[in-house]
Amino acid sequence: MKKKISITFLILYTLASFAQKNNSSRDTTYIKLKFYKKIFKKKITVNDSAKIKIIDGDTLILVKNFKKFRRKASRIKDISFEHKTRSYMPLWQYKKRHKEAITKQDTINFKFKKNDTLILISNKDFYKNQKRISVPYEQKDSTFLETYKDVVYKKYNSLGNIRRGKKEFMRLWEKPLKIYFAPGLNNYYKKAIKKEVKKLSSIDSLKIYFVKNINKSNYIIYQINNISSVKYSKNIRENKYINYYINWSKGRIYDAKLEINLIQNGTIDKKENANILIQNFYQTLGRFFPTSKLPCNNIFSECYSSNKKLTEKDLEIIKYHYSYGICKFTDLKTFEENHKKAKEVIKNGGKMKFTHIY
Question: Whose CA is closest to 222, among 277, 286, 268, 279?
Fold first, then answer.
């Protein structure tokens, strides 16, 4: 099946806001020279020239009375308070995707990160014409991030270590989930799933619908027992109770099957069945793994329990997974490098943004 592929670029260098604080004084700040001239309407003197420095092509001048500058600047409407964002792509990737020759100006704008040469693309027509959204980096504390990395990447998960040489990638649904309840699925389980879906309504980028036509679905939930024997997934083999199978391409989940097999477990209470079904449902929203870093009553806890519920921590993990404030579809190493870079930029007074191109 032909699929539309969306590409996500990380803005490698998002410059600081219009001002860069000097550590020597809270009211001493570097601002753009053109703003200085527009606001203070004075010529640059010899003494002023000693206060000038250039950062990434922007000429900045040291201002000692920043509060005064802000008061004056607030009266001028056409002043932009941020540097223009610059986006880069690895040179090898650029050559692979685009036929345009590398110009002299391109080489002047080159940046180097470890073993990669980065080419500026925010001045290219193909970039300007693409639909994209830039979102500020979403900061989280280290405790949350380590839990998130275990749920998404199995960083600490002792139940399913990553095979040597194999990287675990972030996976999520880009297109809406269209859930189809197969004939024979008990109404009790249908209601349980619908109830959980309502709890996810606040996540804008995770859309879930219910459809009555199997051909319009990309997610099927079905039940096998002595009456119903239709198996909708050949990939769910030797299932003795409840299991699922998801398909993805380049990290984008596009199909899921969730099976509840009651042939050998017909005497188990419906409430217990529903709870285990719900736990598996939540795992299919991002190929999430159980973690030891959450209490037993949490959906994503590795502790076995038939009395789990979606806690605030669980919901926070799902919201963050579908947040645009992080770079999507990365492996663990890249994920951690992105966070390290973002924190450095913010620590130095800058702003970090992720641009998602589609």
Answer: 277
Amino acid at site 243: N
Q: How many CA atoms lie within 13 A of 48 on its CB side?
A: 13
Q: How far apart are CA 340 and CA 267, in angstroms?
A: 51
- pLDDT at position 205: 93
Phi, psi of 54 (to 5 degrees): -115, 125
Burial class (CB in 10 A: 0-12, 13-18, 19+), 84: exposed
Distance of CA 195 to the CA centre of its chain: 26
Instruction: Dump pLDDT digits (tens) for 308-348.
Output: 999 999 999 999 999 988 888 888 988 998 898 888 878 87
Give me the phi and psi of 297, to 5 degrees please.
-80, -5
Largest CA distance in the chain: 91
Q: What is the pTM of this model?
A: 0.70
Q: How far apart are CA 15 and CA 157, in angstroms?
A: 37
Check: CB of residue 134 under 8 Å from CB of residue 353: yes
